[in-house]
Write a structure and sequence with these properties.
The chain is an alpha+beta fold and 294 residues long. Helices cover 51% and strands 16% of the residues. The longest helix is centred in the first third of the chain and has 26 residues.
Length: 294
Amino acid sequence: MAGTSTDEIAGERRQLINVAYRLLGSLAEAEDAVQEAYARWYALPRSRREEIVSPGAWLTTVTGRICLDVLGSARARRERYVGAWLPEPLPDRAEWDHGHGTDPADQMVLDESVAMAFLVVLESMTPAERVAFVLHDVFRYPFTEIAGVLGRTSAACKQLAASARRRVGVAHAPVTAAGQADTVRHVKQAWETKNIAALVDLLDPAARMIADGGGMVGTVLHPIEGGARIAQYMVAIADKAPGLELLERSVNGVPGLVAQHAGVVTTVASFDVADGRVTRIWAVRNPEKLGPWV
């Protein structure tokens, strides 16, 4: 029947990858979840597949359930994780598109719902809250469909989304891409010249820096608090890595910095900016999370 053709089923992949990445914060895990959903679809008897009115909705429901399971087990894995855990950073399309058209990163839509600041807030939610919030508030799925993913009533799913919304809280006014790019550029210049005073001026006094090395590379295991301490740490890094090259790059759709050493990407840094000053820095150094940047 119409709607179950191979091309149409395959055409759902882009949407599913986007949903799964926002739910999991990991491109690799998102790809695995979507692959599993497709495997379950093709494992159905043909007669059962033909009975399904909306294959896209079926695939979304199954992907959501798989992600829910992954999120549940992730909590235990995070307890064993060395240091802070951060979502996988995504480069701009130009950075990963090599003409193959099969890379899951090539399917990603980069908007405010994948900004590192937003993904970090999602990490504070319970798995059920995150699924309800992302599916409803980001992708506009009705609560009747979300109920099928979570195995709860529509009213319960609505309450979960509302609870998640309170966690998001009242964010500061969004900074334009140009405004953020200017601030990040000034940080780059001050970092390259090891100008602590300039860095302190660019960092909010209550700024916070979180680094994710996954126990695979050297980095701080706990957040660094305060603009002055962060500035000192950044300059210390520059001193220990002569030849470190800083590049202005889009990170999850927002201006950020990429550090290369001997031509190898070692760090991808995301920033949150308010009133012209950096309030948060998220530095991903775990090489397993830098695959799309190679």
